[in-house]
Amino acid sequence: MIVRILGEGQWEVSDDRLPALNELDSTVEAAVEQGDRETFSQALDALLNAVREAGTPLPDESLEDSDLILPPSDATLEEVRELLSDEGLIPG
Amino acid sequence: MTLMKRISLIFRAKADKALDRAEDPRETLDYSYKRQLELLTKVRRGVADVATSRKRVELQAAQLQQQSDKLTEQAQKALSMGREDLAREALTRKSALTGQMSDLKAQQAQLQGEEEKLTLASQRLQAKVESFRTQKETIKAKYTAAEAQTRINEAFSGISEEMGDVGMAVQRAEDKTAQMQARAGAIDELIASGALDDASSLNRGDDISRELEAMSSQSDVEAELAALKAGTSGGSAPQALEQADSTPPAQVEAAEEPRKEEGQA
User: Fold this and answer.
1) Could you tell me the residue range of the domain that residue B38 belongs to?
2) What is the spatial distance between Cα B31 and Cα B28, in angstroms, rounded to a whole number?
């Protein structure tokens, strides 16, 4: 499974790590919905660190698309909301 | 659905929309490649822009540091002349600068971080664009238009995700830089208006310097006067006595002038 952290690159993560990542991901998602800034930034950090730790970076020249995409490490709660909205942050 | 999945689906939808449906799908490859090169230029320009902003902030920090050092010197000088009030004023101004300086240091660190991130992004994109170009040529050489479609979709989806990512990184860096530019502009204005008492402006000088200079020229005059008087009592030439009588009062008056202005202000 390939996971992208926006602004950082892509990691190959084995499928058996997915449940743990999903759990961390739910915490981030709930924090975004509740507008809980503090939990959001802690949970996002934890999630991104888990991906970096569990994964192997893909080489720069690889052209594979990702199964999962995560916000940049310095994203604000508002930016993640915008990212999730259709006319969001992604240009093009 | 998880957050990670939602974001990836949004990216995919955008990529799908961006995929140009040319009559011959192989044309799509050339068109996409052209856009990739444009984005690469844009990221490199982004790196240069952030670097320019960082240098501007560094220059301002240096100017403020210079001003702060000058105020410390002034405080020492004032104190040595027994003017605690002036020393206090100089130190008060210096402490106002300290806040500005730590703000600038934080900005500098942030801009440095953006610069590094964009530099890495441009390296990643360059590697991917190069790899895309190779694939593109292979696809064009090996496959007919009809066969090419699947291969094209594969090559295209990976690069378009990267382009979305990089495009977003450039946008965010631009936004952050613009915010800091506005603040840097405000500091430039402050320095230009003399509100921060830019010590480096030679023709103006600030009020503390003027007062200290006035005091030291006054004490120079007194010292010279005393020396002349001492000389006279020892039987000096009348010409020297005459000079001592005429020049010093004019200097004293000139020297006192700024202090009067300061008192009224």
Assistant:
1) 3-202
2) 5
